[in-house]
Each structure stands twice: as structure tokens, then as C-alpha cells.
Amino acid sequence: MRPLQALLLLPLAGALLSGPSAELWADLSAVPWRPVPTTIYRRVQFGSACQCRAACVADPRCQALQVRWLSDGMFTCSLSSHRRGAAEPIKPPADEEVAWFERAGPPTPEEICWPAESGCRPPTDCAELRRAGISDSGVYSVSVSERPVFCDMATDGGGWTLLQRRGGPISNASFAQPLLAYKAGFGQPSGDHWLGLEAAARLGELRPQLLRVDGWQDDELWFAVYGPIVLDAADEYRLTAPWLEGNTTAELVTPSRDTRFYACGSDTYLRSWSCQSAGWWRDPLQFQQGTNLNGVLHLGELVSQWVTPAGTKYQPTRTELKLRDADF
Ligand SMILES: *[C@@H]1O[C@H](CO)[C@@H](O)[C@H](O)[C@H]1NC(C)=O
Ligand SMILES: *[C@@H]1O[C@H](CO)[C@@H](O)[C@H](O)[C@H]1NC(C)=O
């Protein structure tokens, strides 16, 4: 296993410990050269590479570090008083498990982690990243999802973990998917995708969430925020989502209706229904009516539909659903 991969696979213990301040991780990034041996002023053993990075960041003298994996699961952490600067990169010998870091610019999204009791942990969700000062929208690794997620760090203060994107620049994901895929997620987070009901429910177990729906029709944006939402994994991901604010409302959830999530393969799904249809929370007796922002392509057109209680229908050409802590 390569060192950087190992860094990412460390146990996610202490997942609820709060992280250090943003500055702590702001300028420590992986580099392909080792610190000059004579500049190493401290050598300690730790149970995780992340603790070594934390030790360096907490010490103003530390400008670079080397982490070496030991056979017993421990790590030797060498702190250096100097950056190597721009020198010829050297390749680590093949039999060594080392990684080098310097105060040389921000960490890449994959390098962001927080020290935890026994190891380091990735951020739980986009809201935690945003709170830590990360302000670039993009693809990140977070612990609520086994697959990478897209973080919207711009809309209304950012910190949104995307649940869905339709009609974006990379628009090749099919939404005609069975329930299993809707649970696990599909598509590329940088393009059209569905995060997955399981990850969305895990977010809700951590903290109450708001659901924001953005819909664009001819470049005009309509949005609605619902919450705090309840996404009940034990009841076919039944969604309860009271409307909170926005410049449109939509019948995502109507109390009088059955608002479980239906997709091809659902136990209670009408068995005659074609698997060409897309999953959504909806009235099983009125599949064609009401909101379905996952509506599949029909004759080359998106048939996403957003219906307000007043009966107005929007057919957005692009949509995003996103989740964020209710008390962000
Ligand atoms: C969609 O496009 C991306 C980027 O070009 C590619 O990696 C991915 O495999 C494509 N997915 C499908 C379902 O075609
Ligand atoms: C709805 O609100 C958003 C965000 O404030 C705004 O950008 C958009 O123009 C509004 N849309 C309409 C149709 O008023």
C-alpha cells in the first residue's frame, strides 16, 4: 500500500470529535522530497500519520515532516525546521513506506483530515469542511458517504452536500435506476449524480438537515428550502420535509399522500411499472403527476417536473438537491 493511500484508510475513530481550526491544516501538503536529515529536530512515535501532521502544525518551528510506517502499526514522525524548497524530487526507495509534508500550500481535498483518538478521520460532510474554512466548491471525501461527494461551498454560505444534480455540464448519468442504485448512489460527483439515500440518511442521523432544491429554467433560478427534514431509512426513506423558505414551493411532500421513496425494485412498487422510470418520493397511484426531479429523459428532453401546491408546473432544465445542517 502506498503511504498516501494508507493515510486515507486509517480508522475513522472518534468521528464526532471536533476538529482543529482551519489554519491548522491550511498549509501542510504532501511533497515528493524528504526533509534534509540535519534539520530534523524532533523524532517521535505516533499511532497515526495524522497525529504527526498535527504535531507539526501545532509547532511554529516545524516546516516539514517525514512519516515512516513501522511494521508494528506505529509511525515514526520526524519534524524538520526547514523546508527543502524547490529541489529535484526524489523517489522513495520501493521498500520504504514514507510520506513527506511541507508547509507549502494548502492540502489537496484528499489530504484534509482531523486528528482523532486513534488515528485521523476525514471530514464528516461538506458543512464541516465549510466550517473549517474550506471555500472551494468541488469533489471531496467525507465519511458519511463511501463515494466522493460534491460540496457546494457558494450557495447561501456554502456547506451543502449535493444529493442530486441533473442537467449539469457533465450530463451522462442515467436516472432510470433500480432502488439498490438509489440507495447506494450513482453517477460522477463532478457531473450528474445521485448521492444515495443511505448517505443522506446517515447525514440526518448525525444532525438535523435542511434540504435545498435549486431548479433552473432558462437560466432563471427557483429555489425552496425544506426542513428540518426526516428521511426514515426504516420506512422506505419516507421523506418529511416542511417548506421553510424560498421563491417557490413544491409538492415534494404532501402530508395526505404516501411519500415513501419508490424506484424499480421497491417492495411496494407497482410491479407492472417499467424500470425505465426514475426513483422519487411520490404517490404510488399517481406516478405521472406531481414533482419528480429525477424524471428520466424522454425524446431527448428532461421530464423533470416541479409542481407547486397552487398547481403551477415547472420543467427545470437543471436541478440540484443539497443537504446541510439545520443549525449551520
Ligand atoms: C460520463 O462521463 C464521465 C467523464 O467523461 C466518465 O468518466 C463516465 O464514465 C461517464 N459515465 C457514463 C455512464 O457514461
Ligand atoms: C429566487 O431566488 C434566488 C436566490 O435569491 C435568485 O437568485 C433568483 O433570481 C430568484 N428567482 C426568481 C424567479 O425570483
Automatic annotation (TrEMBL):
Gene Ontology CC terms:
extracellular space
Q: Does the keyword Transit peptide apply?
A: no
Q: InterPro entries, from UniProt?
A: Fibrinogen-like_C, Fibrinogen_a/b/g_C_1, Fibrinogen_a/b/g_C_dom, Fibrinogen_C-term_domain
Annotated signal peptide: 1-22
> Which PROSITE patterns does the record associate with it?
FIBRINOGEN_C_2
State the UniProt keywords alphabetically.
Signal
Fibrinogen C-terminal domain residues: 117-327
State the protein's name: Angiopoietin-4
Q: What is the organism of origin for this protein? A: Amphibalanus amphitrite (Striped barnacle)
Task: State the organism's lineage.
Answer: Eukaryota, Metazoa, Ecdysozoa, Arthropoda, Crustacea
Q: Gene name, please?
A: ANGPT4_0
